[in-house]
Amino acid sequence: MIPVSLDIYLSISLVNNVGEHVGFEIIPKKVMDNPILKYTNVVTFHDLHHTDFHVNFGAYFNIWDRVMRTMHKDLKPTFTKIHDR
User: Fold this and answer.
1) Which residues form the Fatty acid hydroxylase domain (predicted)?
2) Which long-range contacts (CB under 8 A, 24 or more apart) does 37-46 make?
3) By residue range, what is the domain housing residue 24?
4) Are 38 and 75 contacting, i.e. CB atoms less than 8 angstroms apart?
5) What's the CA gap between 57 and 53, in Å, rounded?
6) Into how many domains does the chain fold?
7) Closest C-alpha among 79, 40, 31, 37 to residue 62
8) pTM for this one?
9) Phi, psi of 17 (to 5 degrees)
10) 64, CA 20 to 30 Å: which among 11, 38, 74, 76?
11) Alpha helices in 1-85 (DSSP H)
12) How many C-beta atoms surround the C-beta of residue 65 within 10 A?
């Protein structure tokens, strides 16, 4: 069971890491307004972290960034602007 769990985790981690570094937003716009999915990270979240290393630390979820007030203030406007192009 442990090797299978490790394989699943590593596969999810690989897909997440590649997805965060593709250079364009691949997450649908409606995710940002979903009451549950808005706590998952989008590509823009990670891109903003590379722009400003003092914000957006979460790897999979942004819950702690919300709690600790380290979430980039322009995340939603930037995400929306990218999708409106």
Assistant:
1) 9-70
2) 39/63, 39/66, 42/79, 43/19, 44/75, 44/78, 44/79, 44/82, 45/72, 45/75, 45/79, 46/20, 46/21
3) 2-84
4) no
5) 8
6) 1
7) 40
8) 0.81
9) -65, -45
10) 11
11) 2-20, 43-51, 63-67, 75-84
12) 20
